[in-house]
Write a structure and sequence with these properties.
308 residues; mainly alpha; two-stranded antiparallel sheet; 8 helices; 6% strand; transcription regulation; Myb_DNA-bind_5; transcription; Regulatory protein zeste
Length: 308
């Protein structure tokens, strides 16, 4: 039995010191009793971890040639390896393709497991997504910030193999998604009610060219000059000016896009005219060749008729 003193007869400091001594004595007793078992468990765990460290050796990194070989093989068999369907037949086809790649690499003296190759390709794809995302953000930035990560040509090659995996989610209410696609698509929403503006080069303002917005029927219009509520009246609000829905950058991009379209149309028209001229020249040459053949046949048939 433990002696249970009355805490009222001791001060707080004395009581706390006695309690701490009791707790320390109990902990030392527990360590003395269970110490052997604890040491045995810790020794077995340390031996297990040391065994894992010995057996698990780090594998060699993929060289640039090996990466290029894997990416090229995936590109040639993308209909199977990049197929998002999940069924038994397709899984077997994927496994067979990875094993085929393993055999090809083994023929060149490179011995790797097909699971390691598949896992490495998945890691390269994730790294390519991160790198290309950094480049896209940097392209719409204003300068400054940390340096861009180094990118190899394989990142963009992988993005061309599976472009659907590199599509970023865009939020129309978030400014980060602006100017990542065609700037003309970000300025005008596709709808049935379209409004067309043109940039005046002299004043730099937008001029309304065409509007398909539904017009109000004058027969149904009502006079809304003043709205009265009791003795209080509110005047009709002054109509606000239409704000520009494009910044200077977007207007400049729209102008460049328009010039590009005009140049493209002019180039296509010139190309069409040249093709017509070439076809006409080819037709004339064929007709001349045909005439020469006919004259040659007539010339050869003439002496035979005279002999007869």
């Amino acid at each position: 039995m433990y002696f249970q003193p009355r805490w009222e007869s001791f001060g707080k400091t004395r009581a706390y010191s006695i309690m701490s001594r009791c707790i320390r004595w109990h902990s030392e007793s527990a360590n003395f009793i269970f110490g052997a078992h604890t040491n045995h468990v810790s020794n077995s765990k340390s031996q297990e971890f040391s065994f894992l460290k010995i057996t698990m050796q780090r594998k060699e990194n993929f060289t640039i040639e090996e990466k290029a070989l894997v990416v090229q093989f995936v590109s040639d068999n993308r209909d199977i390896l990049e197929n998002k369907a999940n069924n038994t037949r397709l899984q077997k086809s994927r496994r067979d393709k990875w094993m085929e790649l393993t055999e090809k690499m083994a023929a060149t003296g490179i011995k790797r497991d097909w699971k390691d190759i598949r896992g490495a390709y998945q890691r390269w794809k994730l790294a390519a997504k991160k790198t290309i995302s950094c480049y896209r953000k940097h392209a719409t930035g204003t300068g400054g910030g940390p340096a861009l990560p180094e990118s190899s040509g394989l990142d963009f090659t992988i993005s061309e193999i599976c472009p659907e995996d590199f599509v970023e989610d865009e939020n129309p209410h978030d400014s980060d998604s602006l100017r990542r696609t065609n700037p003309t698509l970000n300025m005008v929403e596709k709808s049935e009610n379209e409004v067309t503006y043109e940039l005046d080069p002299t004043t730099g303002e937008l001029v309304l060219i065409q509007s398909n917005l539904p017009q109000a029927d004058p027969s149904c219009s009502t006079e809304v000059g003043k709205r009265s509520h009791g003795d209080r009246t509110s005047p009709e609000p002054v109509p606000k000016k239409i704000k520009k829905n494009m910044t200077a950058y977007e207007a400049a991009m729209l102008e460049l896009q328009t010039k590009k379209m005009d140049e493209t149309l002019r180039y296509m028209e010139e190309k069409h005219n040249l093709e017509i001229q070439i076809m006409k020249q080819e037709h004339d040459l064929r007709m001349e060749i045909l005439k020469e053949q006919l004259e040659k046949e007539r010339f050869l048939q003439g002496p035979e008729e005279k002999k007869n």
